[in-house]
Design goal:
The chain is α/β, with parallel strands linked by helices. It has a domain at 4-141: P-loop containing nucleotide triphosphate hydrolases (Rossmann fold). The chain has helices spanning 16-29, 67-72, 74-78, 95-107, 125-130; strands spanning 4-10, 34-39, 49-51, 57-59, 61-63, 82-85, 109-115, 136-139, 142-143, 157-158, 160-165, 168-169, 185-188. The longest helix has 14 residues, at 16-29. Bound molecules: zinc ion. Residues 144, 146, 154, 156, 188-189, 191-192 line the site of zinc ion.
């Protein structure tokens, strides 16, 4: 029986959800029962589905992004061999949430996809707290889409998520969670990740 904790981390547009769905499908094809969980914070596409940017989809169980949200569906999660959790950064960090995931991954295979950093380039606490426990971490990178004055795209591997407000870099003080797609976010390399301080 598969068990343990696997993590898939990276910025937006690095293919985290695609990778998560790919791995879950592989286990489903091998005859394992698979369940996918997503936080209610992420309402970008269909409510009860996880849809990757390139259109792959899978039914998902929507839970409140905190310990009690997972605890409520605990029985159902333990009824499956493999549990996938998408957008894990939206879960509220508490020690009992981490313990829940660790207990679950003692008996089941848990695969978590999460943003590495927020738009400010700072870690998400819940991701920081769970990451060291993973047996396997897959770090994905996107492609930097910064365009310079000569209209050339950077094209370096991107590890950061750039938030844009009306096409300009969002200031440090803008809210941490703002669900959006290509109109509000771009993948950027370190050099081109820009977070203006509000007083500038
Ligand atoms: Zn760049």
């Amino acid at each position: 029986m598969a068990s343990g904790l696997r993590m898939i981390v990276g910025p937006m547009f690095s293919g985290k959800t695609t990778e998560l769905l790919r791995v879950l499908r592989k286990y489903a094809i091998a005859g394992y029962s698979v369940v996918l969980v997503k936080p209610s914070t992420d309402a970008r596409y269909a409510v009860n589905k996880v849809v990757s940017h390139d259109g792959l989809e899978m039914d998902a169980l929507v839970v409140e992004p905190r310990f009690t949200g997972l605890a409520k569906v605990s029985k159902l999660l333990y009824e499956h061999n493999v549990v996938g959790i998408d957008e894990f950064q939206f879960f509220e960090y508490t020690p009992d949430l981490i313990k829940f995931i660790l207990d679950l991954s003692n008996e089941r295979l848990v695969i978590i996809a999460a943003l590495n950093l927020d738009f400010r380039g700072e870690p998400w606490e819940v991701v920081k707290e769970i990451l060291p426990y993973a047996e396997d971490v897959k770090v994905l990178r996107a492609v930097c889409t910064y365009i310079d004055e000569q209209r050339r795209k950077c094209g370096r591997p991107a590890s950061r998520t750039q938030r844009l407000l009306d096409g300009r870099p969002a200031p440090y003080g803008s809210p941490r969670v703002m669900v959006g797609g290509r109109e509000s976010y771009e993948a950027r390399c370190r050099k081109h990740h820009i977070v203006p301080r509000d007083w500038e």
